Description:
It is a single chain. By secondary structure, the protein is mainly alpha-helical. It has a domain at about 10-45. Helix content is about 50%, strand content about 0%. α1 packs antiparallel against α2 (about 30-40).
Amino acid sequence: MADQRHSEPPCPDCDTLKVQLETALHFGDLSEAVDLRVLLRRHPRHDDTPVASERKHA
Length: 58
């Protein structure tokens, strides 16, 4: 069954930030990755939507 929580159309700004986040993580730029996660969390249209953590819990 499809996830019904995301009824809004995709946000191009968020998509860009997510690509930049993946790139920063790929190259090991953790400082940039943190900055991008903050920007995603503070994005005006998505203030209440948390960004998935990349942390692996043991």
